[in-house]
Design a protein that fits this description.
This protein is mainly alpha-helical and 106 residues long. The protein is built from five helices and two strands.
């Protein structure tokens, strides 16, 4: 990776409001992944969610209206799994391994 993860975390500060809600979805992939990690960390393992419940979790984390974009990205980047009809969602168990290099150790 060309830049350190810490550099991306610092840049991301500009993408959040004072309530720690995302105000703009980043265009750079590493920053997108970090944003999605922050949301995925709030979803319980081994629990099934409805689309409405997932939307609520996302809504609490963003200050703009495109919940569908974030939900689609979480599915595309394999943070979320879902049934084909979208009636059930869950957090994928191996996303932490897949994105280990992006996870900040505080």
């Amino acid at each position: 990776m060309e830049k350190s993860i810490e550099t991306y975390y610092k840049k991301l500060d500009n993408y959040y409001d004072s309530n720690d809600r995302l105000i703009q979805y980043p265009s750079k992939r590493p920053m997108r992944i970090i944003v999605l990690i922050k949301i995925a960390e709030q979803i319980e393992l081994n629990r099934k969610y409805t689309e409405k419940e997932i939307n609520e979790i996302i809504k609490l984390n963003i200050a703009f209206d495109d919940i569908e974009l974030i939900r689609r990205e979480m599915y595309q980047y394999k943070f979320l799994g879902r049934l084909r009809d979208g009636s059930e969602y869950w957090v994928e168990t191996d996303w932490r391994n897949a994105y280990a290099e992006y996870i900040r150790e505080d």
